[in-house]
Amino acid sequence: MRKVPSHLPGLLAATLALAACAESLPPAPTRFADGQPTAEYRIGPLDTLQVHVWKAPELSGSFPVRPDGRLSTPLLEDLVAVGKTPTELAREIEKSLGRYVREPSVTVIPAGFNGPFERQVRVVGQAASPKALPFRAEMTLLDVLIEVGGLTEFAAGNRAVLLRGQGQGQQRYAVRLDDLLRDGDTSANVPVMPGDVLIIPESYF
Question: Which of 31, 68, 19, 33 is closest to 47 using CA atoms?
Fold first, then answer.
């Protein structure tokens, strides 16, 4: 196993140490046993929502979902938004507004996308712009790498690791990012799932 410099923070050092053992991990699956995971969009913290109440512009507007997962609009406070689809939230707003407005008709449109934490794909390590991405339909490693701007010049792409699941059921897979980006090997372009974490270690030589 390649030695990780002691100056790295504990968590990052642990993840890079894991990536250093990528050669012993199985390759990531090229397809899902249960089919493609659903890409139905659910609202997450820090999303921005356009709420339109028909014939009531004073109740309409652009509203952020707070870090606690709640949303406040005119007349309504602390509505739970996280984990709901825009349509589900619109129906709840209609029900709540029904105390003040006769037969309200509400449309909710996400204007900024983050999604719930468990639906994000996160990239750490030697990506040009490490970040968390909202999962979308038929998302692959190549889609993820485009979103983060590719690899840095110091990345050890073929020692990257994909973490899937949490706790005792977590699975670890080796992925070949150099082969995908630099050699155009499409067999390395495997699908990703909501909640995946891609760890890209640094090459020390």
Answer: 68
